[in-house]
Amino acid sequence: MSTDIQANKTMPAFNNDQFTNLLNKFNESGPYYTSYPSISGWVEAFDHHDYEKALKDFFAGEGKDTPIHLYVHIPFCAKLCWYCICNISISNDRARIQEFVNYLLREIDMLRNFFEKNSIKPNIREIHLGGGTPSHLYTDQFAQLTERLSTLVDLNSLDEFAMEIDPRTTNKENLKFYADHGVKRISFGVQDFDANVQLAINRVQPVEMIEALLPPNIRSIFDGLNFDLLFGLPLQTRKTFRNTLETVKRLSPDRVTLLKYAHVPDVRKHMKAIHDADLPPPDDLPLMFTEAVQTFLEHGYEWVGFDHFAKPTDDLGMAVKNRTVGRNFNGFTTGTTSHLIGIGPTSTGAFGNYYSQNFFEFHDYFKAIDEGRFPTFRGYRMKKDDVIRRDIMFRLLCDQRVNFEDIDVKYAINYKEYFEYELAELRHQFIQNGVLDFSGTTMGITTLGRCFIRHVCRVFDTFNRAANYKIPRPVLKSNRSLM
């Protein structure tokens, strides 16, 4: 099988007995490797002081002029979606939301003051407003946020300024307002267009609602439109999901993210509202996925990594052709920025050899800011072995191949000796069944193997090799949580 997806636009069908073992593997839980190690491997002995030291170390070295991605977490939503695994707070209490905004602005001030005190001029090139639902802020609150962000960077000079939108709680005037305040890309959490599925996940947003928000004059004021889709939702079938895919094709977003629903009611209690009996048969999940991949490929989208799709004219689609795709906590990126600083409760950072995460709970988040501390409660400083393994994983995820000779030269190792265990595992698990192939010192992911890149990466993961991987629980220490 070819490792070049551009040379092979056809997905192999999961309808042959030889794929039975792969079908089971497809449904295994495991990290998505937006970082390595994953958050479950980080330590809580990483606080305000460690975070400041990490920033100083980074900006004194490789971070001096390197492009930076700024992520801002807005935790509030108007209504709870039963599939949601994000760290959110359901509230329409405007005083409570304004209190949060005030603290968020203070955290931005704290970061700016830190930069000024240490003569750091960060080269911020991208901003992403995530959540939760950033569009749940009132326009005056949104204006407060963008005004304060503009003290860090000229928003009009950014390569990308993206935000997530809930179509149920916005309108065309709001979208124009966001564009006037610098937003260049909007992302809609579509998930599924089937009316029964929407009822089953408590997110009713008919296609007519989304169409009404996106007439040509609105589309034209943004550089890009993203849709998020989920497969494996309650009452979803292969047929209904095909209908959703056809609707997505008609609406023609610039990018699509296609994720598998993770049903973990022991971690997210609200998921108990979704009945196990309503979930699709496990054997249907890889079929839904591969049919979706085939649909997007036939419609001209570029396949990015394993779960992103982009039009060839989109920056991400062009990054596929140029082999510059990157990876961070927001998924696959154009590769313009490879270092991320997080702001807001639960937000994560990944810069240089450091990872960090802010407090989950408002109480702890507010308390840290009141005391003049960055609200960091855990993080991780990568060792050389972690850096090597992350490099291999990210090259597989982003390029579908890794040249071990390059790894040897870059890190002064002998890959055959260093990864003796991993290479044996890869031969045993994947090479014999068409997931991987080798050409000299280059290991490539086949077209079929694109469905199993995460599983291949897991072989290199010394933290989560065990088969009993569990999605990490939020770290909560009181009853005043974000959930």
Largest sheet: 9 strands, mixed
- Strand-residue fraction? 15-25%
Q: Could you report the average pLDDT, rounded to the nearest whole number? A: 92
Under the CATH scheme, which architecture of the largest domain would be assigned?
Alpha-Beta Horseshoe
Indicate the low-confidence ranges by residue numbers: 1-8, 476-483
What's the gyration radius in Å? Answer: 22 Å
Description:
The strands form five sheets. A nine-stranded mixed beta sheet has the order 9-10-8-7-6-5-4-1-13. It has a three-stranded antiparallel beta sheet with strand order 14-15-16, with helices on one face. It is α/β, with parallel strands linked by helices and 483 residues long. Helix 3 packs parallel to helix 4, helix 9 (238-251) packs parallel to helix 10 (284-298) and helix 13 (384-399) runs antiparallel to helix 17. It folds into two domains: 5-30 and 383-459, Arc Repressor Mutant, subunit A, CATH 1.10.10.920; 39-381, Alpha-Beta Horseshoe (pyruvate-formate lyase- activating enzyme). The model is unreliable at 1-8 and 476-483 (pLDDT under 50). It has 17 helices and 19 strands. The protein has helices spanning 20-26, 48-60, 94-117, 139-149, 172-180, 195-200, 207-213, 216-219, 238-251, 284-298, 315-322, 362-370, 384-399, 404-411, 415-418, 420-429, 453-459; strands spanning 67-74, 76-77, 89-90, 123-131, 160-165, 185-191, 224-231, 255-260, 302-304, 308-310, 326-328, 331-333, 339-343, 348-351, 354-358, 376-381, 401-403, 436-439, 442-445.
